[in-house]
Design brief:
Biased composition (Pro residues): 15-53
Strand content: under 5%
Number of strands: 7
Structural class: mainly alpha
Region (Disordered): 1-79
Shape: globular
Largest sheet: 3 strands, mixed
Number of helices: 20
Distance between the termini: 186 Å
Pfam families: DUF247
Order of helices and strands: HHHHHHHHHHHHHEEEEHHHEHHHHEE
InterPro entries: DUF247_pln (IPR004158)
Length: 521
């Protein structure tokens, strides 16, 4: 018994033999391929046979379960809804288009406004939506209502008639303004604003031309000259415009004969911009082609046909010499007395430039015309911008202003020549000329003239030695003596003639002899 216990304890202290692993489950063989499929080819030598992924693993890698498929279907439905919403919003953007080919009234580009914001900002009255509702301009709103009342009394129409005219052109009116969608104005507010502003402009035109002093009693505009001028300047700003066709339609409701709104507009603008609006441009302006007052002013100054370049691809970037440089090259400046400021000519060393008035409001006129051309005329026919570029090349310093002022090409109404040169310099900032610059031929002719040295020499002789008659006489006498001296020194003795026969002088012993009567005379 003890031996059995001892054997049991001994056997329990020894390690038990390893338990054999259970046999692997029988391998599931893939079903044989269908009889219609050809047997698979054995892999090429040196490559391992392809491994077959179990069906469950294949679902994890490349397939989807039924639950996953339902989630993807719902996600696809959600993405389809987003696409529909985007499509609807884009259709709304197309319907409410931000730009139209009818657009002609623009906001001034920021790069131009930064140069002189006052040149583009109205002072006393707002016209159109861009400056509507500003606090400093509300004082004139009461005056607009008073003018509307007078218009209705004299035209025998009612407000409904004015609204009917507006409704017929509402879409066209909105299309005339750039970025109109950024202005929060309802249809009713827009109609009220347009009608009040249009009637206000018409009444200003009528009162300026045809009203008597008695009917103007108590007027805040016409009995205050400074305010009248400010009003006219304000209605000539690019951002302060109404389409001209609306003014024509409303003016037809007013009972006046033998007078058109085109004639009234011309007379009013001529009163303020006397140097720009000339009488000979009255017949040139086509009423149907005028967009607004800024476009009207632009039409008042147009280059003649012979100034327009025949080759529209012709472009030159060569700078034009300054007025002083042209003067030193012998160019003469002349005021031809022509009405068109753009009628500039150069021939036979004479540069003809019609007189330009420079006053405190010159920059306002040119800046707004310049901004309109940059917004509305993309590449060609920037006549005002081309003219500004030409004048700014001539005037780069105060002495250039003096040259043009002495020759009556400039009429200065400012304090000094330096102020004028700075004004012209500011006009040319951010200026964009047209590809078919109508002054390119004159620029090339001026550069060609200055490159010829004989013109510089002759100009120096005239300007330095022929300033006054006494200097000219002195120079002429000195030149005459110099010619005599050179003739006596250089002429050979063989050219001396005596007694009708060529020979030598008998007084050869004298080195410097005076021609004697016997042999030399």
């Amino acid at each position: 018994m003890a031996d059995e216990v001892t054997r049991h304890s001994t056997s329990s202290s020894e390690p038990s033999p390893p338990v054999p692993a259970p046999p692997p489950p029988p391998r599931r063989l893939l079903p044989p391929p269908p009889a219609s499929l050809p047997p698979s080819r054995p892999p090429p030598p040196g490559t391992s046979p392809p491994t077959h992924t179990p069906p469950s693993r294949r679902r994890e890698i490349g397939g989807t379960s039924r639950t996953d498929q339902q989630i993807m279907d719902r996600s696809h439905e959600d993405s389809s809804l987003d696409i529909d919403e985007i499509a609807i919003s884009m259709e709304d953007l197309i319907t409410n288009k931000a730009f139209s080919w009818e657009c002609c009234i623009y906001r001034v580009p920021a790069r131009l406004r930064r140069l002189n914001e006052e040149a583009f900002t109205p002072r006393v009255v707002s016209i159109g939506p861009f400056h509507h509702g500003k606090e400093n301009l509300k004082a004139m709103e009461h005056h607009k209502i008073m003018y509307l009342q007078q218009f209705l009394e004299r035209s025998k129409v009612n407000v409904g008639d004015l609204i009917n005219v507006f409704e017929g052109y509402e879409t066209k009116l909105r299309d005339c303004y750039a970025e109109i969608e950024t202005i929060d104005l309802s249809k009713e507010d827009f109609a009220k604003m347009i009608i009040l502003d249009a009637v206000f402009i018409i009444m200003v035109l009528l009162k300026f031309v045809g009203e008597s002093n008695e009917s103007l009693h108590g007027e805040q505009i016409f009995f205050r000259p400074w305010k009248f001028v400010d009003v006219v300047w304000d209605i000539c700003l690019l951002e302060n415009q109404l389409p001209f066709f609306l003014l024509q339609k409303l003016f037809e409701l007013y009972p006046i004969k033998n007078c058109t709104i085109m004639e009234l507009t011309f007379d009013l603008l001529k009163e303020v911009w006397t140097n720009w609006v000339k009488e000979d441009s009255r017949e040139r302006i086509n009423c149907s082609g005028v967009l607004h007052f800024v476009d009207f002013l632009r039409m008042c100054q147009q280059p003649s046909k012979h100034h327009l370049p025949k080759d529209k691809t012709r472009f030159s970037s060569a700078p034009v010499p300054t007025a002083m440089e042209l003067h030193q090259s012998g160019v003469k400046f002349k005021n031809p007395g022509r009405n068109s400021l753009f009628d500039i000519r150069f021939s036979n060393g004479i540069l003809e430039i019609p007189q330009l008035e420079i006053h405190a409001r010159t920059e306002i006129l040119f800046k707004n015309l310049q901004a309109f051309e940059q917004c509305h005329h993309m590449y060609e026919d920037k006549f005002v911008s081309d003219y500004i570029s030409f004048i700014s090349c001539l005037v780069r310093a105060p002495n250039d202003v003096g040259v043009l002022a002495r020759n009556e090409n400039l009429k200065i109404m400012l304090n000094s020549d330096e102020v004028v040169s700075k004004l012209v310099y500011n006009l040319d900032k951010e200026n964009v000329v047209s590809a078919n610059n109508f002054l390119i031929g004159i620029c090339e002719d001026l550069n060609s003239h200055c490159r010829k040295r004989r013109h510089n020499w002759m100009a120096t002789l005239k300007q330095d030695y022929f300033k006054n008659p006494w200097t000219a006489i002195s120079v002429a006498a000195a030149a005459f003596l110099l010619i005599l001296t050179v003739t006596q020194t250089v002429m050979p003795e063989s050219m001396v003639v005596g007694d009708g026969v060529q020979g030598a002088c008998r007084q050869r012993s004298r080195r410097w002899h005076v021609p004697c009567r016997d042999c030399c005379l």
